[in-house]
Write a structure and sequence with these properties.
single chain; alpha/beta; 8-stranded mixed sheet; 30 helices; 58% helix; 6% strand; EC 2.-.-.-; endoplasmic reticulum
Length: 794
């Protein structure tokens, strides 16, 4: 019963540690309570049409075809004649939801969205749509609902297709964009006969938003250089041209409509996005219509050294680059609505068609302009200081909570170590002291009006350290009773343990470290003297060879996404030859010589071929072989020499360091599970092709749980309780490393990798504790399956 209580308490502690990173690192930076600000001047436009081509790269739109023509002739004509263009610089993570939030709300990634799989913001926020009089949206069900959800009222209307349509395996994803354009046409057609709808459309401060997902979906499925991706861009250009003609005709060409065409993010050549490569962060921006400058001819070099102007043949037209969040205040200014309260964007003045008063006294006008520039510079400084203040405010509790969790980690680990050694009786004075500390912490949190989770994080270290301090006599007794050991020997033991744990931590970032570890472990039988045992010699040699074989896997290339035609040919041949051979043998014609040649050639080429699919298939049997040898060496060694108390502890450390090491090797040996946040859907296409990060991540985690289970099923003659506690200590020390390495900035890959490292270690610990509880219950109780004694018949 006592062991079960210990397991349950430990499980609770680790669940708290597991959840703490979301309160410490991933809280929303949004501040509420501010009043929206708007200009009192009359806006140049009555309505805004926003078209977002999801996943469109800047070079894919601006680059001309080899014959000098453009695949987007309508948008090219806008750039060259009636609009202003530039590059919108997005920020990581370059994904659809944060990209649209930056475009429409004017602020960048809300890291607290990690709790909802990055598909929506968990905190309501202001946006241009919310500030508009009416907003009509058409597009993806993953994007549109979050803007309607946060709107103060029912003036944001969404029209979406079913989520099942967003299928990576679709034959033609451009149908998603065709659906949007068709729905918009039907909407305006119906408005002609619907007086109520038409009256709403004729009001000012309206927004029409078209979210086009086809380009992004085709990019994921076929890559951005594919014909499907490029044809989809041409389809969008045609759709935009028809859309503008229809809108202008509906409103009688009143010249009061502004148009913004852009993208939420780009895409790499291999069909992914999320990080900070220029192909992901550079997106096109084309603005035209009411209140927007026409194309401006330039003769002097422009302040851009990236070479894109020459590549795109646009060096003669003024280019105006912006940060993605700058588009939100631009749209708000065009239709005269308040800028969203959480916006950090800066209004790009060069897009606005503002006529200055240069006809009067030139000196006076020049002085006014200099004064305005000076005011702008002061405002920019104020914005910079304010943003720094927001960061300080957002991370104000991080150090305090982090210290509480670290104290809990260190205290729990210390307690487990002391439990392994010995147990002492509690001290009443110590209990009173801890109660006083708990009261002081509670009073402090009450004054701060802290949330309930803060109480858990701050009060948890108190009972943990009480348990440590009441066992403090254990360490003293151990020092007094232990035989004298040279100081250098103790230091060497400490360095070896620290090196082993650090090696496990570094292996999460550099898989080659597993090779180093396996090479060192291959010498274990030799260094420990097991090699000279009569029954262990052969197994020691098998251990040496197994470690060296397994050491090669971390050095092999990780999973790729390009098709392997030679492997497909091998599969076809391997499927055909056995069938032909079976038929020949059935007819008693013997084994054909051609079949023999093909079979041996296939075998040799399969062994020589350095391909991921093959080394992925070989990895499990090699790892299983090495674990089998390990179990036999351990059993033979312990049964042959007997185990004393101190020897048991030393062997336990070795055995369970190996256990943790092999679990990490199972995760990272082939390189395809370096992070559970990998959103490459290719490995789970057999189960689903519609994007769902939780299900896909769960499937990728499930494929490695077999290795954990096989390792946990290992038997040992040592004390089982101590063995489990040693694994717990090693895992907790690794988790403490990764707790400090969690980051809340950068791409989804950076953020998700830091989270997944922590999650992997904590999940391994929690999984082992649950398994230990169940095992203890099942093995410590006698189950009577039948009342009658078993009968044996002669």
């Amino acid at each position: 019963m006592r062991m079960i209580t210990f397991f349950l308490i430990g499980l609770t502690v680790h669940v708290v540690f597991f959840l703490s990173i979301f309160d410490i690192y991933f809280t929303s930076p949004l501040v509420h309570g501010m009043m929206p600000q708007s200009t009192p001047l009359a806006p140049p436009a009555s309505r805004l049409v926003l078209v977002v081509a999801d996943g469109l790269r800047a070079d894919s739109l601006f680059t001309l075809l080899p014959n000098g023509s453009s695949r987007t002739p309508y948008l090219r004509s806008i750039i060259e004649d009636t609009g202003t263009w530039g590059v919108s610089h997005t920020r990581v993570p370059t994904e659809s939801r944060p990209g649209h939030v930056a475009l429409i709300a004017g602020f960048y990634e809300d890291v607290s969205a990690v709790a909802k799989g990055w598909k929506e913001n968990p905190v309501e926020f202001d946006s241009v749509f919310n500030e508009s009089r009416h907003t009509w949206c058409w597009g993806s069900p993953d994007i549109l609902p979050m803007f309607a959800k946060g709107a103060s009222g029912d003036h944001v209307y969404t029209h979406t297709y079913p989520a099942q349509e967003e299928d990576f395996a679709s034959t033609d994803a451009s149908r998603l964009d065709t659906w949007v354009f068709t729905q918009v046409k039907s909407f305006f057609q119906s408005a002609k006969s619907n007086s109520t709808l038409k009256a709403s459309l004729l009001e000012d401060k309206n927004v029409f938003f078209l979210h086009l997902l086809g380009i992004d979906t085709n990019g994921h499925a076929h890559r951005p250089m594919s014909q499907e991706y490029l044809d989809n861009i041409a389809l969008v250009d045609t759709g935009v041209a028809e859309l503008v003609s229809m809108v202008e005709d509906f409103f009688g060409n009143d010249g009061r409509t502004a148009y913004v065409f852009t993208a939420d993010h780009g895409m790499t050549n291999w069909g992914s996005h999320g990080a900070g490569h220029p192909s992901e962060t550079l997106t096109p921006l084309v603005v035209w219509g009411a209140g927007v400058h026409n194309a401006q001819k330039v003769t002097e070099p422009q302040p851009y050294n990236d070479g894109y102007l020459q590549d795109w043949k646009l060096e003669h037209l003024r280019r105006v680059d912006v940060n993605q969040a700058d588009i939100a205040p631009l749209m708000a200014s065009l239709i005269g609505v308040p800028i969203p309260v959480n916006s950090v964007g800066v209004l790009p003045l060069l897009y606005l068609n503002n006529s200055g008063q240069f006809k009067a006294e030139s000196m006076y006008t020049n002085a006014i302009q200099v004064l305005e520039q000076f005011k702008i510079s002061l405002c920019q400084s104020l914005i910079s200081y304010s943003l720094e203040g927001l960061v300080y405010y957002h991370t104000y509790d991080r150090f305090f909570l982090g210290c509480s969790v670290v104290l809990g980690f260190v205290g729990w680990t210390s307690y487990v170590v002391l439990v392994i050694l010995k147990t002492h009786n509690p001290n009443r004075n110590l209990a009173r002291l801890c109660m006083c500390v708990a009261v002081v912490i509670t009073a402090f949190l009450l004054i701060q009006r802290s949330p309930i989770t803060y109480y858990i994080y701050c009060l948890l270290p108190v009972p943990v350290w009480y348990s440590v301090l009441k066992e403090s006599g254990t360490l003293t007794d151990l020092i007094r009773s232990a035989p004298s050991l040279p100081l250098w020997k103790c230091f060497c033991y400490f360095v070896l343990v620290a090196f082993g744990i650090e090696l496990l931590v570094v292996s999460f970032f550099h898989r080659a470290m597993l090779t180093v570890g396996l090479a060192v472990l291959s010498l274990w039988p030799l260094l420990s003297g097991l090699y000279h045992k009569a029954k262990v010699t052969f197994r020691s040699l098998s251990w040496f060879l197994g470690c060296l074989c397994l050491a090669g896997f971390p050095l092999m290339p990780v999973v790729g996404r390009e098709p392997n035609l030679s492997l497909m040919l091998h599969v076809a041949v391997c499927a055909y030859v056995p069938s032909l051979t079976h038929s020949s043998l059935q007819q008693k014609q013997g084994l054909p010589l051609l079949n023999q040649i093909i079979s041996w050639s296939t075998l040799v080429s399969s062994i020589l071929q350095q391909n991921y699919k093959i080394h992925k298939a070989l990895f499990p049997p090699v790892l299983s072989w090495l674990m089998f040898v390990w179990i036999n060496i351990e059993q033979e060694a312990l049964l042959a020499q007997g185990v004393s108390g101190r020897q048991e502890l030393n062997v336990s450390l070795t055995v369970h360091f190996l256990q943790v090491f092999f679990i990490i090797t199972a995760f990272f040996g082939t390189g395809n599970i370096a992070s559970i946040n990998s959103f490459d859907p290719a490995s789970v296409y057999c189960f689903l092709t519609v994007f769902n990060p939780f299900i896909m991540g769960g499937l990728m985690m499930w494929k490695v749980l077999y290795f954990k289970h096989s390792l946990n099923g290992k038997r040992c003659v040592l004390n089982k309780g101590n063995l489990f506690l040693i694994v717990l200590v090693i895992s907790d020390l690794m988790a403490l490393h990764f707790f400090f390495l969690v980051q809340d900035y950068g791409s989804w890959l950076d953020i998700g990798t830091s989270i997944s490292h922590y999650v992997i270690v904590m999940s391994m610990t929690i999984f082992l504790m649950l398994l230990s509880v169940v095992t203890h219950i099942l093995t410590s109780q006698r189950l009577i399956l039948w009342q009658r004694p078993k009968m044996h018949f002669p």
